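for the writeup, i need someone to sanity check this before i put it in the appendix. the sequnce is what the collaborator sent (i think, or maybe the updated version? ugh). structure was predicted straight from it, no edits. if anything looks off just tell me and ill rerun, i have time this weekend
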Amino acid sequence: MRFFILIISALTIYSCKTESVKTLDKGTYRAVLKVQDQQELPFIFEVKNDSLMTIFNAEEEIIVDEITYQNDSITIQLPVFEGYLIAKICENELLGSFVKPSLDRIIPFKASKNNVRFLPTNNTNINITGSWETIFSPNNKADSYIAKGIFNQKGTKVTGTFRTTTGDYRYLEGIMDGDSLKLSTFDGAHAFLFTAKATDSTLQGFFYSDNHWKEPFSAKLNNTYKLPKEDELTYIKKGYEYFDFSFPDTRGRVVSLSDAKFKDKVILIQIMGSWCPNCLDESKFLVQYLKDNPNKNIEVIALAFEVAKTRLSAYQKINRLKERVGIKYPILLAQYGNEANKHLAAQKLPMLNHVISYPTTIFMDKNKKVRKIHTGFNGPATGKKYLEFTKEFERFVDSLLNEQ
């Protein structure tokens, strides 16, 4: 109750005199979320009509079709994920909040007509095109982790992403403003901002996530840099002969690998969550693969670790994901709570050495023997890496299908 009072209070700060329902005019808008250090996290969206808009992140286009109005207020429900924008419409300016209910998180939001993501003030003679050997939280051994920055710069415009051992940081878009790098993305689940001071061979900066997280990072240009192989990070522990589980589907029916439908099938087990953008990328890939290969002797099962306060809300989120993406394979509820705790996930799946990433995908042959475990998912934002993954996925699955 306190959370919803905060939302209402945030909206009542803004007042627009009206006695009729206002709707948003067509056009391109620049939106801004307020994060830590008074930084602004911008993104661009285009209003097609009063019930349809598109959010842009570099090459990514996110269609938004759940838009409602009440008097002078608008609610924009982002697709698949629970996050939504709620705001007052004041002369085609939006003033309100980005809300993530399960995390009790409210982030100030505003938008007005403009088609420029970042507003440059300086020219630059720095170009960061290439691959970057990156460390996040470099001075904290307990929290530090490695990544690979992949960037392309044309003039002052920069696009690309950071790949980590557990997935990528989405489609990033921004500018080089003098010696200052600024990149952002917004997809309804994650709102990321990266800022850094740059030279042609170094980056020193900060990573902001929503308004709750900030960490430093450093990077150096290294076009030969490679991350550890995704297939060598997670494995079955000694003493466990098989991978098995029993979890309920959204109808409450318990599903196990011992069920008859999985006999003599190649099986893919997707450890995921409906809140996870990298999991969404993988789910879309798997849906398309199964659609393109309807007669192959393969079953996919997803184990969902949900950020949800109740079992019912967890089921609702899973069903929303299935409906929006067209998922036909079963998604079982493995865990729900205030966070997708990886330590608790590992306890639910004790045969794994650890769960370090959502998603993690387990490949099993027709004899239910684990043949490979792929940690993380590098989605379309990673370009060449994603194409390499799709080819290797198809090759490996075909090899399992062709075994006697």
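The two ends are 58 Å apart (CA to CA). The mean pLDDT is 92.
thx in advance!!
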